[in-house]
Write a structure and sequence with these properties.
Blueprint (H helix, E strand, L loop, with lengths): L1 H21 L2 E5 L4 H12 L3 E6 L8 E4 L6 H16 L4 E6 L14 H26 E10 L12 H17 L11 E7 L5 H6 L11 H13 L9 E7 L2 E6 L1
Parallel strand pairs: 1-2, 1-4, 2-3, 4-5, 5-6, 6-7
Antiparallel strand pairs: 7-8
Helix pairs in contact: 2-7, 3-4, 4-5
Length: 255
């Protein structure tokens, strides 16, 4: 009888412990991109409920919000925010992670300047401001909002003006959200990762002769965001964190 009681006790301990762990949720904007899908898989492997926000569904996620690309910012933002709230129910997000984005070049004389700038703002600025709006309502009191900037946007980007402007806007957003009265929970942390070149299938396809020893593996980024989410590593809110890889060794530099 004593052994039976002991086994039952152990069962309930693990059941409730794992149940509590499974109650933790994160949302990943750009969950079908190279980095986003890596983050979805990483957090799933750690026992989190994971919601993906993207143009198409990530079948590995526990829930998906499919964004309408033809909608304006107001419609997209309200749609994403409402659907995430519906998926969460009474839960809160441990982290709202935005790794959506893209790249397109062009200087001031480019025939595609306006098209390029418009696309870059939609892919980086729209997604980031929507992520911030979601965090304002859905993020846990001490949760993480992680956005994606870019090292080149810390300086001038003459050959990719739209991209540089969009990423610089994300940097400014991070600084604003870290201040009091930003609309986020008082104890929330807002950070941005600033990668240089990520080791993605597309980069390998289009830059086969590049020095890949300077490219950052995607799982290293996912692990860093996970550590920020769990408070295993703490960085001051409002920080821009450069991701630098050399000779296949990655370091993180806080701006």
């Amino acid at each position: 009888k004593g052994l039976h009681f002991y086994i039952i006790s152990i069962f309930f301990f693990f059941f409730f412990f794992l149940g509590e762990k499974m109650s933790e949720a994160v949302a990943i904007y750009g969950g079908m991109g190279a980095l986003g899908s890596t983050c979805v898989a990483f957090f799933k492997n750690k026992g989190y409920i994971v919601y993906s926000i993207d143009l198409v569904a990530n079948e590995e996620a526990d829930g998906n919000v499919i964004v309408k690309p033809s909608a304006d910012l107001n419609e997209q933002g309200n749609q994403v925010k409402q659907q995430i709230m519906d998926l969460l129910g009474e839960k809160k997000l441990s982290a709202m992670i935005c790794v959506a984005g893209g790249w397109r070049g062009g200087n001031a004389a480019s025939d595609e300047l306006f098209v390029s700038a418009d696309l870059m703002f939609k892919q980086s600025v729209w997604t980031s401001i929507i992520a911030a709006a979601v965090a304002s309502s859905a993020l846990a009191e001490d949760g993480l909002l992680c956005l994606t900037g870019a090292v080149p946007a810390l300086d001038g980007t003459p050959g990719m003006i739209g991209y540089g402007m969009a990423k610089a806007a994300v940097h400014q957003l991070v600084k604003s959200l870290a201040k009091n009265d930003s609309g986020l929970p008082q104890s929330a942390t807002t950070l941005a990762i600033l990668p240089i070149t990520l080791d993605t299938p597309m980069n390998r396809k289009f830059m086969p002769d590049a020095d890949m020893s300077t490219w950052t593996p995607l799982d290293i980024i996912a692990e860093l965001i996970f550590k920020w989410t769990t408070k295993a590593e703490k960085v001051e809110s409002g920080s821009l964190v450069r991701v630098e890889t050399k000779d296949k060794e990655t370091v993180f530099v806080v701006e």
